[in-house]
Design a protein that fits this description.
Largest sheet: 16 strands, antiparallel, barrel
Strand order of the largest sheet: 1-2-3-4-5-6-7-8-9-10-11-12-13-14-15-16
Number of strands: 16
Order of helices and strands: HEEEEEHEEEEHHEEEEHEEE
CATH class: Mainly Beta
Structural class: mainly beta
Oligomer: single chain
Shape: globular
CATH superfamily: Porin
CATH architecture: Beta Barrel
Radius of gyration: 23 Å
CATH topology: Porin
Helix content: 10-25%
Number of domains: 1
Number of helices: 5
């Protein structure tokens, strides 16, 4: 890294004469999503509201535009903008990628700028519907990582051993993103001292992956969390242990990790993909175990598929507040805040590649919450029953 400025300055004069090249590309999904109830809404992991009986386009629709700038054969840049429904229930535009890349050798490269967090099998293209067989990534696993990008730098090393290709990537940086909230004031999730390790092995049709993300988490501008923490600190004058509870649920520079493994197989007409992940934090955000498995079979231009996904709550902080009338409201708030989400989903779907750069997908999910409303949003009090979700989408790239 220290030698890069000298290398760049020496090579610049030789390589810039030809001038830069710019390539524009894009992707998008136009979708309609609905559910069989209005007592709770189905949303993606980064959204504040979702679909009920009245269909909504915002749950699964997006539009992305990317510019690739080639300065020479070793220096390039990439910028990608993305428009989709966000944590404030608006169509928000975000800068998903923006980095410069230096290809040091055929095996070694360095990037700096805004980079995707390599937390999943499909981190590089999870927003590109056309690149995935399913209509959307399973919420049970993909909701457990709150960061989709980080600002920093990475190094990537590629090596081939016989017929197997190995990739090792290390990313360092920080991130600030808007967390889902029903309030008009944005709630910000911040990650400091972030590191991400991504190891991939590819052998013919088989891909194996291991990933680990570590960070110091902070959650700011949450009126609910701030009110509860302040209330606990005030009540700690009479009940000292409530001060420790306030420290436990406050999200300020708390250690967090996300560890995942995955495998993919695309052999003849058989398509299989699976991931398993563990989330751990030192805050009210509960530890969790999540996984999914997808199987499909390619029949000409059609790929029918099935997915089973599962999310388990691995425990939370000790949230006991003394059962006295004066603390009843505080107790209810803390219980609601620290209650983890658990659910499973069974999915059937069909992908039809009706054009060279477009597909049509139809998907039906049976969502079964196991702890209240699970990952469903804006649920009525006491809601806890299975929900059927349907969606139809057209994915395209250009």
């Amino acid at each position: 890294m220290l030698s890069m400025p000298l290398a760049i300055s020496n090579a610049w004069a030789d390589d810039t004469a030809a001038g830069p090249t710019v390539t524009i590309s894009g992707f998008g999904t136009a979708a309609m999503t609905w559910a069989n109830t209005d007592d709770a809404q189905y949303a993606r992991y980064n959204q504040a509201s979702g679909a009920g009986k009245k269909g909504r386009t915002g749950v699964d629709s997006n539009l992305g535009l990317q510019a690739q700038i080639g300065v020479n054969d070793w220096l390039s840049g990439t910028v990608q903008g993305l428009v989709r429904k966000d944590g404030q229930d608006d169509y928000g535009a975000e800068l998903a990628w923006a980095f410069a890349k230096a290809k040091i050798s055929d095996n070694f490269s360095v990037r700096a700028g805004r980079l995707g967090v390599p937390a999943f099998m499909i981190s590089e293209y999870r927003n590109v519907g056309y690149a995935n067989n399913f209509l959307r990534p399973p919420n049970e696993l993909y909701s457990q990582m709150g960061f989709s990008y980080m600002d920093g730098a990475d190094v990537t090393y590629l090596v081939a051993v016989d017929d197997t290709n190995f990739t090792a990537q290390l990313v360092v940086g920080s991130s600030t993103q808007i967390a889902p909230s029903s309030n008009s004031t944005p709630v910000h999730l911040k990650g400091k001292h972030m590191t991400a390790l991504n190891l991939v092995a590819e052998h013919g049709p088989l891909t194996l992956r291991f990933g680990r993300v570590d960070a110091k988490l902070s959650l700011s501008d949450s009126s609910l969390l701030n009110t509860l923490v302040a209330g606990l600190r005030t009540a700690s004058a009479a009940v000292p242990r409530l001060g420790a509870l306030a420290d436990a649920i406050e999200v300020k520079d708390k250690k967090a990790s996300f560890t995942s493994v995955g495998a993919g197989l695309d052999w003849n007409n058989i398509v299989v993909q699976t991931e398993y992940a563990k989330r751990k934090t030192d805050s009210f955000l509960n530890d969790s175990t999540s996984w999914y498995v997808m199987g499909g079979y390619r029949i000409g231009k059609f790929v029918p598929y099935y997915i089973h996904a599962d999310l388990k709550d691995d425990g939370s902080v000790d949230n006991t507040v003394p059962a006295v009338p004066a603390l009843r409201a505080l107790s209810a708030g803390v219980t609601a805040l620290t209650k983890g989400a658990a659910q499973s989903t069974d999915t059937i779907g069909l992908r039809w590649n009706f054009a060279p750069s477009a597909d049509l997908k139809v998907q039906i999910d049976r969502v079964k919450p196991e702890n209240g409303a699970g990952l469903l949003v804006n649920a009525k009090s006491g809601f806890s029953r299975p929900v059927t979700v349907g969606a139809i989408a057209v994915d395209f790239v250009f």
